[in-house]
């Protein structure tokens, strides 16, 4: 994994690493996918970690997302990150809206409303 951070390592329980790759995430494949990754990740980070992540770690991760500059769709990742932080500030103490982070249709509609209906696959 090199310098990569395994986000599952923050979960409680025993962490076990295997030599096989379980999956690859390519969030920078379209404007929508980049935006969605930044929006979801920073919404959760800005709301506060349920797994004991230190506030400074969360802040640094949000800062990395909001300063995204590398990659074809980096501006969308950064915009999603900023919008995710604003979303978290508005709804941090309300559980219902956070359920929408797992609703693909809601996410696509929110993206389209803010950034136009970019042609994306998936």
Keywords, please?
disordered N terminus, 122 residues, mainly alpha
> Over all CA atoms, what is the radius of gyration?
15 Å
Instruction: State the shape.
Output: globular
Overall structural class, as computed from helix and strand content, comes to mainly alpha
What's the overall average pLDDT, rounded? 81
Structure, described:
It is a single chain. This protein is mostly helical and 122 residues long. It has helices spanning 31-47, 55-66, 74-91, 95-99, 104-115. α1 (31-47) runs parallel beside α3. The two termini are 27 Å apart.
List the helices and strands and how they pair.
Layout: H1 31-47, H2 55-66, H3 74-91, H4 95-99, H5 104-115
Summarize the structure.
With 122 residues, the protein is an all-alpha fold.
